[in-house]
């Protein structure tokens, strides 16, 4: 296990965290948030999530990058933050996330993602 991910002695730690911040999946949200705090991986405008089903990380990413600050900056620049989630299985609709159901190794799927990003 990586040294930057905290391990809670009980399950209540991640649950309290996710409930406090309104995240969908407690463990995924906690891990993603901790990784971001350590490495600033979400200091970006666009995110592509591969093998995204069931969608927990995509949901968390959309909440973390699609903040009021980004909206203010983006509206001025005309470029909103964009999250694309690609997976073989269907996912529930997530606000701010473009979903592509398909195989990430398929050229057709790559073309669909390319049209979304351009």
From TrEMBL:
The keyword Acetylation does not apply. It comes from the Eukaryota. Residues 26-114 form the Ribosomal RNA methyltransferase FtsJ domain. InterPro entries: RNA_methyltr_RlmE, RNA_MeTrfase_FtsJ_dom, SAM-dependent_MTases_sf. One of its GO terms (biological process) is methylation. GO terms for molecular function: methyltransferase activity. Transmembrane segments: none annotated. Keywords: Methyltransferase, S-adenosyl-L-methionine, Transferase. PANTHER family: RIBOSOMAL RNA METHYLTRANSFERASE (PTHR10920), TRNA (CYTIDINE(32)_GUANOSINE(34)-2'-O)-METHYLTRANSFERASE-RELATED (PTHR10920:SF12). This is (wild Malaysian banana) hypothetical protein. The lineage of its organism: Eukaryota, Viridiplantae, Streptophyta, Embryophyta, Tracheophyta.
């Amino acid at each position: 296990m990586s040294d930057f991910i905290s391990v809670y002695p009980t399950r209540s730690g991640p649950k309290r965290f996710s409930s406090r911040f309104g995240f969908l999946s407690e463990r995924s949200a906690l891990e993603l948030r901790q990784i971001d705090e350590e490495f600033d991986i979400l200091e970006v405008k666009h995110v592509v999530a591969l093998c995204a089903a069931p969608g927990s990380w995509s949901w968390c990413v959309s909440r973390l990058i699609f903040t009021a600050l980004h909206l203010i900056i983006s509206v001025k620049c005309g470029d909103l933050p964009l999250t694309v989630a690609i997976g073989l299985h269907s996912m529930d609709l997530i606000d701010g996330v473009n979903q592509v159901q398909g195989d990430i190794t398929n050229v057709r799927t790559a073309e669909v993602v390319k049209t979304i990003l351009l």
